[in-house]
Amino acid sequence: MKGTDDEQPPEGCHHYNSLGEVPWDIQRYWYQRYSIFSKYDEGVWMTDDAWFGVTPEPVANKIAQHMSESLPAEKGIMIDAFAGAGGNAIAFASSGRWKRVYAIEKDPKVLACAKHNAAVYGVQDKISWFEGDCFAIIQRELADVGEFSVMFASPPWGGPGYRSEYMFDLSTMQPHSLKDIYEPFSKLTRDVALYLPRTSDLRQLAKLVPDDKKVTVVHYCMEGASKLCVYSNKLPAVTSGHSL
User: Counting C-beta atoms within 10 Å of the first and last residue's C-beta, which end of the chain has fewer, N or C?
Assistant: First the structure.
């Protein structure tokens, strides 16, 4: 069932209808609400912090397309390790490519938003949700699906302050460094995609790649801004610099 306008969000979740309701520090994101969720007016919920981390819908859809087209059929499970308010999980589920999307979020309020937003987009039955620490859940509950799975991770970057850094240091990324993320994920599956700041230090990424392997780095550009997605193993054989 899709979300309805008269359904009230729980405490900590919001659907802002006018600029006057929006805290000053997220007003710039509210102006971009239709780029973040095209169905925003149909009742999308967000926590105030979630605005900073949602992948804009056109970018999420393009990532979903690239990942769908680049993997063999036996890879039928998508794991979204840091699901947030649901932007990427919704795009993966909407693609129709995956037998199941597993989405993990540790914040119960953000998870409530994600579940609701999936209903707004009509894909709630295609996603299994997990609340808790993604590293523990992957090890405890998803270890058996590793050979059939693909991992997507859009980790927290430590807040919007990353934009002021000329080169983003992935070794000090908070609360999880690049190594903290990549090593346990790559033990589950070799097919891992990381969504990172566009100024990420590519030399740090290269150090994780075996000498006989390469990874694909794609910049997704939208409205004068870009983010970087790193694909390992069989993930997309596409060139950098996609404008949306």
Answer: N
Q: What integer is the mean pLDDT of 97-110? A: 97
Contact 112, 103 (CB under 8 A): no
Return the percent helix, strand and coil in the chain, to nearest 5.
Answer: 40, 20, 45
- SS3 for 146-214 is HHHEEEEECCCCCCHHHHHCCCECCCCCCCCCHHHHHHHHHHHCCCEEEEEECCECHHHHHCCCCCCCC
Q: Is 96 left (phi over 0), alpha (psi -120 to 50) or beta?
A: left
Q: pLDDT tens, 178-207? A: 999 999 999 999 899 999 888 899 899 888
Q: Which residues contact 64 (CB under 8 A, 6 or more apart)?
A: 88, 91, 92, 94, 95, 97
Residue with token string 């780095």? 217
* Mode of pairing for the β-strands spanning 216-222 and 192-197: unpaired
Among 67, 64, 37, 41, CA closest to 50: 37
The C-alpha atoms of residue 135 and residue 118 are separated, in whole angstroms, by 23
